[in-house]
Amino acid sequence: MTLTVGVDVGGTKVLAGVVTPEGEVLATVRRPTPSQDVNDTARVIAEVVRELDEDYAIEAVGVGAAGWIDASRSVVLHAPNLAWRREPLRDRIQERVDLPVVVENDANAAAWAEYRFGAGRDQHHLLLITVGTGIGGGAVVNGEVYRGEFGMAAEFGHVRVVPDGHPCGCGASGCFEQYASGKALVRFAKERARDDRTGARTLLEMAGGDVDAIDGPMVTRAAQAGDTVSLASFSELGDWLGWGMADLVSAWDPRCIILGGGVAEAGDLLSIPARETYAKVTALRGRTEAAEVRMAALGNKAGLVGAADLARIR
Ligand SMILES: [Zn+2]
């Protein structure tokens, strides 16, 4: 049995796991991401790989990173939420662990995992939108990860949706990520809570009465408890996502579009308004058949499972 390690490097945590050819995760290790220092990040990735390599016979390593990766799958060109700028990540890790390494965009890796083992197992054309702190995008076309000419295809989060809109970590402004991500959810909730403290009563209780202390998990918990402002913030987020999905379907025509990421784990709170808007817009555009919207099946392990599997077929 060929075992590989997948490492998911996000803005806050590094999650690594040993993965079988069937997509089963045998063991995981988790560390905080030292996001301000690129050498530290490579060191932490190498450490978690070596730790897993002690107990399992590892043959290759796949790293899923929240950034734009070059077409040779070795250099992180730019990471809006991490310190990497033209970072030769593959070589830096390879010299520390003495195993073959591939680097993949984290959402591409997650899309691959959902295609191979998750919500898109029966489909050959699918898109994945990960709704987390930011927005990630991945595309599987004809049963392969579609990376584009320069390795940056499917960066759905950085399509401009509002001219002169909210500034984005990528350097531009008005990006989809600023309206349909966890960050956007918190902004919507703060704006609404300032105007409507009564409707935000439950949410503000959780935040100790301080609007600025509101965070994403609080908005989810308050919405589950029926807090009006939190529910309205989810509706607003879902509406943006529904429009975004309809636009992506117009451009890509996949068989299914999968919603994943930490915020999507809020389930119906997000999927109901997103599906409603999506159905309305696709119907308006005269589409009699359009991609089915599905929720991701592999949760927060999708990135590491996909990266590990892509390392196997490198
Ligand atoms: Zn952007």
From TrEMBL:
NCBIfam families: ROK_glcA_fam (TIGR00744). Keywords: ATP-binding, Kinase, Nucleotide-binding, Transferase. It comes from the Bacteria. Belongs to the ROK (NagC/XylR) family. One of its GO terms (cellular component) is cytoplasm. InterPro entries: ATPase_NBD, ROK, ROK_cs, ROK_glcA. Pfam families: ROK. One of its GO terms (molecular function) is ATP binding. This is Glucokinase. SUPFAM superfamilies: Actin-like ATPase domain. One of its GO terms (biological process) is glycolytic process. Its EC number is 2.7.1.2.
